[in-house]
Design brief:
Blueprint (H helix, E strand, L loop, with lengths): L1 H5 L7 H6 L8 E2 H4 L2 H6 L1 H7 L4 E10 L5 E9 L7 H38 L8
Antiparallel strand pairs: 1-2, 2-3
């Protein structure tokens, strides 16, 4: 994950770019959104994933009420090949739980940020200096 963010891949994620407009309410694997030839040429795979031994993934995008989205991606080794239908069906059965967990985590993060702001405000850290 660190290499993904540090390399700016979160801003140029071809998987998410392909999947988002589909608004598909479930998990898909790479070959649902790319041809094999596209996978073999795509920089996400050739520069990031494959050099790290990761070659395939199943992913989903979940829209959340604040017009944001959660992206879940479960990666697997190159040698394992694309995810099969059994794996996708299993992930689909977990998707509602992942959505709830993600929304709860986002709310908890927001509550912590609010608490930190209130604490700093009360202590005078956010007041303008004269």
């Amino acid at each position: 994950m660190r290499a993904f963010v540090d390399g700016g891949w979160d801003k140029r994620n071809s998987r998410a770019t392909r999947l988002a407009p589909m608004k598909y309410p479930g998990f898909v694997h790479d070959l649902d959104i790319f041809t094999k030839e596209e996978v073999d040429r795509d920089p996400l795979y050739t520069e990031l994933c494959r050099p790290k031994g990761v070659g395939w993934a199943a992913g989903t995008i979940i829209d959340v009420p604040n017009d944001d989205m959660m992206v879940y991606s479960f990666d697997r080794a190159v040698e394992a090949g694309p995810c099969d239908r059994f794996a996708i069906d299993l992930l689909d059965s977990l998707r509602p739980h992942l959505a709830r967990a993600g929304i709860m985590a986002a709310r908890l993060h927001l509550e912590r940020a609010k608490s930190a702001f209130c604490l700093s405000h009360r202590s005078g850290l956010t007041r303008k200096k004269r």
